[in-house]
Amino acid sequence: MSDRLHDTLTSLRSDTDSAPLADSMAVRARGNQRTRRQAVGTSLAVVAVVAGVIGVSGALTGTNNKAENLPADPTTSQTPAPAPTDEARPAIDSGLLLEPEDLPSVPAQTFSVGETIEDATSADADERSLTACQELVNPRNTTPVRALLRTFPSDLDAYGFQWTAQYDNEAESQSVFNQLASSCTSNPDRTFLPVGPDGAEGPTGFRSTQFSADPGSEFNGDILGVARRGEVIIVFDLRAMVKEGDIDLQAFDDTLLTAADRVANR
Amino acid sequence: MKDAEGFDAFYAGTNRRLLHQMYAMTGNLADAQELVQEAYARAWQRWSTVSTYDDPQAWVRTVAWRLAASRWRRTKTAMAAMVRHGPPADTPEPSIDNVALVAALRQIPEAQRRAIVLHHLSGLSVAEVAHETHSPEGTVKARLARGRAALAELLADSTLASPEGSHV
Is B107 on the interface with A (CB under 8 A)? Predict the structure, then answer.
């Protein structure tokens, strides 16, 4: 290329030629270290949301019902109607979970599915209620009837996970949902919006976002959605090195509602 | 098992070129060094996949660019690290001749700078730049023309304004 501009830009090479770069072994070591750190971080993030939800459930059914002391939830109506849902409702299974093509796009990143779908029914969630949204602390006296966790790693830093939990009845799932919403609305660092159509018990779900400028954070954007259909709660979380505007939040809502619809139609 | 030998060869064969490009994009040699090393570390993390791509270098370049684009978020950390450890000792000063060019590059909009570096320094065609930046070709052409004109004005070098030998 004989372009004058190319020649001008090429002159910068006189600076870079003398600039040292780490040798490849050091770069590989850095990558390995990063992988180890991410593995720990991802485990904590997944366990945190699970812990949050299970913690809520535990609080609900414990001897002290802490739900009464929580801030009011603007997304739900005043009278959740307990209704037994045991009859003829099949258990949730992996066929109901989201697939990578259901996920909202993140610039330059492609999602796949994690190698395994984890049975998170009896996840060991103690001491881990440290997620950005759910700050309720255990006791966890009960667990969902069944819970599945699917992860969505990507080419780069984006990471998604879907936690789907089936409770004994609608009253329990509604209360869990209410308390998750309450804890998100009471977190001043997050924005919160209802998602989906209103039913007798309020909106189908909500979305809570946090775009952090925390420079030490591996994830700069966190979009958390929670939806309830019947006795099932779905938590879908997407974390990536993104700023607000990089992700179509309407598409995120569609993903959440898709997850809810599959449960409803099972 | 990842192919360390293949990665090492890839790193050795491409890292200078990427450093050069990132220097032009960021206007800061220390930043460029850090971005390049981080991008390659990430490539190593996924090397079993990245190595199968048609153009692994494009992948690393995209990662480096994304890291650069988000560097403002890490400014506080960088400053804190600077306070703790002092400035990096092994970053040479830019040559006097390049100071004006680097300053000019930093003054033009980010999108124009990226298009110029990809097209004029990385040697990508307009179509390839459009693909890599997820932009229409017409937009890329406009960015190149405007960026070139802006650089010419900033450097008071009218010869830069005309795309002699350019593919635009």
Answer: no
